[in-house]
Amino acid sequence: MKINREILTTAGILIIIAVTPLIFHENSYTMHLLIMSMIWAVAATAWDLLLGYGGIFNLAQVGFFAIGAYATGMASIHLGISPWMGLLLGAVASGLAGVLIGLPCLRLKGIYVALMTLAFFEVIGPLIVVGINLGTGGKAGLFPIPPFRLGSYVFNTDELLPWYYLCLILLAICLFITYKLIHSMLGLSFTALRDSEPFAQSLGINRFKSALVVTAIAAAMTGLIGAFYAHYVVVISPRMLGLDMFLFLLIMIIFGGAARFPGPVIGAFVITFLDDMLRPLDSYRLLAFGALMVIMIMLLPNGLMGLVAKINIPLFGKRDTEAEMLNPDIPKTY
Amino acid sequence: MILELKNVTKTFGKFAAVSDLNFSVNEGEIFGIAGPNGAGKTTLFNIISGFYRATGNIVFDNRKISHLGPDKINILGIARTFQIPLLFDSMTIYQNILVGSHFGGQGKSEVENRINEALSFFGLQELRAAAVANLKLLDKKLTMAAAAFATRPKLLLLDEPVAGLNPVEAELFVGLVKKLNREHGVTIIMIEHLMNILTEMSDRMMILNNGQKLIVGSPETVINDPETIECYLGNSHA
Amino acid sequence: MSLNDLIEILISGITIGLVYFLIAVGFSLIYGVSRVLHLSYGSFFTWGAYLAWIFAVKLNFNYFWVFVLVCPILYIMGMALERFVVRPLRKRDNFDFNVLLAGLGVALFLDYAAQAFFGARTKSLPSLLDGTIQIHDFVFSYQQLTMLAAAVVIAFALWFFLEKTRQGLALGAVAQDPVGARIVGVSLNKVYLLTFGISTILAGSAGILLAPRFFISPLGGWKFLIKALIIVVAGGLGSIRGTLYSAFLLGILEALVGWLFGLLWVMPFWFLALLLILLIKPHGLLGSTADH
Lengths: 334, 238, 292
Ligand SMILES: Nc1ncnc2c1ncn2[C@@H]1O[C@H](COP(=O)(O)OP(=O)(O)OP(=O)(O)O)[C@@H](O)[C@H]1O
Ligand SMILES: [Mg+2]
Known about the structure:
The complex is a heterotrimer.
Chain A: H1 5-19, H2 21-24, H3 28-53, H4 61-79, H5 83-105, H6 110-130, E1 149-150, E2 153-154, H7 161-182, H8 185-195, H9 197-202, H10 207-233, H11 243-256, H12 263-277, H13 283-299, H14 303-310, H15 322-326
Chain B: E1 3-12, E2 15-25, E3 30-34, H1 41-48, E4 55-60, E5 63-64, H2 70-76, E6 78-80, H3 93-103, H4 111-121, H5 137-149, E7 155-159, H6 167-184, E8 187-191, H7 195-201, E9 204-209, E10 212-217, H8 219-224, H9 226-237
Parallel strand pairs in B: 3-8, 3-9, 6-7, 7-8
Antiparallel strand pairs in B: 1-2, 1-4, 4-5, 9-10
Helix pairs in contact in B: 3-4, 3-5, 4-5
Chain C: H1 3-34, H2 41-58, H3 63-90, H4 95-118, E1 132-135, E2 138-141, H5 142-164, H6 166-176, H7 178-183, H8 188-214, H9 221-235, H10 240-261, H11 266-280
Helix pairs in contact in C: 1-5, 1-8, 1-9, 1-10, 2-3, 2-4, 2-8, 2-9, 3-4, 3-8, 5-6, 5-8, 6-8, 9-10, 9-11, 10-11
Residues 12, 17, 35, 37-43, 83 of chain B line the site of adenosine-5'-triphosphate.
């Protein structure tokens, strides 16, 4: 792996996250916000893989988050499986759901994908509510979702440090997978499809296959972190399928920079803390976020990372061209 | 015979952009297509390369391909360029060609060789690391053709490859097309408005008008055909 | 299920369908003409109702004046959105993606602006007309009937505008072939402005007509946006006649499913219906293949 701007930024972020508890571990509220930031960071990064890199307007990502959460929640409450298995189950269940949604949706094009997935997303909530007999907990929600155990140690709400580092590990794994994916031939294929679908197809790329695989991977990552979330917050309900999370994740992606890995991670941290600071503003807070979203798109379409890329930092070597930023690992000469 | 079309028709609503077309292309030839604007030339390419579903039958290399999608058709050995240059704008020239070389055609090995061959054949070695978004038109067209070539096609469809180029650039491009045909044995179907270029390079040519075939034959027979003269040469390019 | 039940379901389905047509048609128009997936459409639906609430409840105007006053405001809001958000994005790469997200941002802004100004509690509008009428075994409220009448009037006005007026024909021309329309001298920007203005009026009027029945809340527009989306996609993006058919089809489905299994099942069934329609006709009932 060649060292480049993306790796340096990502490593920097992970190291900062890893050492932050040295300062804040006493402050459980800040710790909680940091954990939530990491959770959103994974969800936003996975979503950006589709929206930013793949140009696939899949609007059902929050649904996959919920599927992951409910999979582990229901299995660990009703079937008593271990939460560790639950993480895996969440990822697998969401990945499968991604394939199932993808099969009909991805045959369609562009805007139709957005509509179909949005419609699907809207249906998950009602399904959870009507599925109360299947053990979804219905409208009231599902609780208490048991915590992780490590030997005789039980994760608990008094001690956030173990949650924190577990979440960091999951974040690191997901970022690694994402980075590898973007720079693989699969990544090349979906970026090619995004740039020009007809040209990509005329050169032998199978649009459906490429889109389906990336949808499944993004869904699985989202499901994984959704499962973690379920154990962390103990109670989940269909309310997580509301607009808030949906819009917040999008704002994180836009703010950090779509298709500017690891922009959405930065976006997740900034927006989570900003949201918390603006809490006293009450409903003006979301109004402000709406305005921020529009302004960012109008004025800074490539987000924070787009801005960073324009700045010459000697440490990072010469300024990357767009193309080099996209696929630095693919050799430019043999 | 490498490609054969039988009773191919494509309608948009009630309008037949290509209607009941029959013709075949021989292995190793350069086959020129001309016709007025809106005659259905590009539509025909879109049909052959799998972008449009049409009625009728298309056989390539002894296989029926009328039901296949564009990616499958490329893998069987048909590559194409587009009338308006299409490229992967966020990538370098090298990466554009890499896409063709890695995903297209049949041999999944020799990816590097194919890229290098395409780069040097089209004279793009120097520019390989350049981002394609800001290239001049000639280089865009060369990159598009190089990516198509990197899929190792048996049949290459070129849609107005020299439109918009100045005479010197056009000549360079035409030279490359001939060389591709002669040295690599690639069968070529080329759409072109300029009659002199087309008659000079084609082994055989076809005139399309209103989605229908007016005439197919050697350049001499075609340009001396009264119908051709009336329909095509008469109004613009005499 | 008796015959009377069936008739009742059908009547209620047709009523719902007509209302849904009203909601969806503006959305369909915008997509058809300007290829914008207008995700803040639902917020204008809400704002139409809130503006009507100001005039009707706070200032005590009657409904005639409410419409006269609210429509121009909606028209200007729609045009402002086109002029200051959509048009600048049109010049840049990734228009589809950016306009989608900008639309969400605008929606968020408008919805929470509504919440900040009007509070989170629901508001209601007085009925358009009070009273009921009985025909055979069936009881209709005047509210329901005026709503139907208004919907028919609006649908006809729209038809007249699109088919019989110069500006309406220009809209159609742009929807068919923007490049060609520009060549023959239609100003695309003007047409886009007009389209956004009119669609916003359509969204807002639907909001006003439905408010007496459904209440007004800051986030209430989303439910209708989603419904509009499904209707428009099922009917074929950009096809107004397709929108009409699918609105009725889904309206009747809603009445039927509601009667058989309860309203909670309506959305899952709609989704299923959409899936089926798109599997059989990938561009919706009357969608053209020219798109993409
Ligand atoms: N997707 C489509 N939907 C509707 N009509 C189409 C479509 N594609 C092409 N047409 C119509 O089919 C006819 C033939 O178009 P085509 O692009 O094949 O012409 P052409 O011969 O390539 O012309 P030119 O010399 O201008 O490139 C035109 O009238 C065009 O408007
Ligand atoms: Mg053409």
